[in-house]
Structure prediction request, 281 residues.
Amino acid sequence: MTSKRRVGTARILETVHSAYAPGMDVTGTNIVVTGAASGIGRAMARRFAADGARTVVCVDVNAAGVAGVAEEIGGRSEVVDMTDEAAIGSLIDRIEAEVGPTDLWCGNAGVGANGGVELDNEVWDLNWSVNVMAHVVAARHLVPRWIERGGGHLLLTASAAGLLTNLGTAPYAVTKHACVALAEWIKITYGEQGVGVSCLCPQGVRTPMTEADGELAIEVVKAMGMIEPEDVAEAVARGLADDSFLILPHPEVATYEQRRAGDRDRWISGMQKLQASLPGG
Ligand SMILES: NC(=O)c1ccc[n+]([C@@H]2O[C@H](COP(=O)([O-])OP(=O)(O)OC[C@H]3O[C@@H](n4cnc5c(N)ncnc54)[C@H](O)[C@@H]3O)[C@@H](O)[C@H]2O)c1
Prediction:
């Protein structure tokens, strides 16, 4: 990969200089984006292709959508359900054999839910499966390869909900917190063995996921200000170049997170007031 994480002398020199130039250049790399049929995944896939990636593999359950994106950017499309553990393993084996080493894996496919603890276990299970376990399974297959090769990068699309919360949706808030925790854990555990990790945590982004009206979980996202998927792709490009762990397309999320950590009781009461002020709250 053209990441500045390499092996041998180059890597030792780069370790010395890592405070200055640790990031990733996507030129000539093989990149996989899950959830690439629309929204943030599609924008990232387009951006990586425009920035000179060698191959962008677009993965989704939406066969027509993902085929269209792959065709548009000259990439490869794969129809895989990220709840299917065996299918994720086969996908990674297939890509490594037919495309080449995976330099960057963007675990971006995600699902939401409208409601709280009253929601059925099936809804909770789906959120756990797509928003957390798909990333665990992908990392299980990729991290050993990356350690052996001396480089590779995992980008997980969590959400500001994973640093703060998301009013109106317990499964989403809880599983996105788990996603952030997973990304952090992988970086702490394997970061010094060449495994780069980024955790993308946007607030509201105008995508099919945020189209519905009248659902508290989505109304709160709209109320906080929406950005476009292309803005997220721009933040990702900058975050990868800087090797930032947290990629925050809405910079104010950093302040909210500090406020939450600084005085949890005050933050909770602020969230209760916000909830009461919203349609559906
Ligand atoms: N839109 C927002 O405001 C927002 C904010 C923060 C985080 N996110 C996160 O961004 C990511 C992308 O969402 P988006 O907003 O672009 O919405 P989106 O609906 O456009 O994209 C989600 C994609 O994931 C795919 N997907 C869902 N389940 C899948 C499965 N089991 N296997 C394979 N693919 C599957 C969908 O088909 C879809 O193409 C998600 O992880 C979401 O949680 C979105």
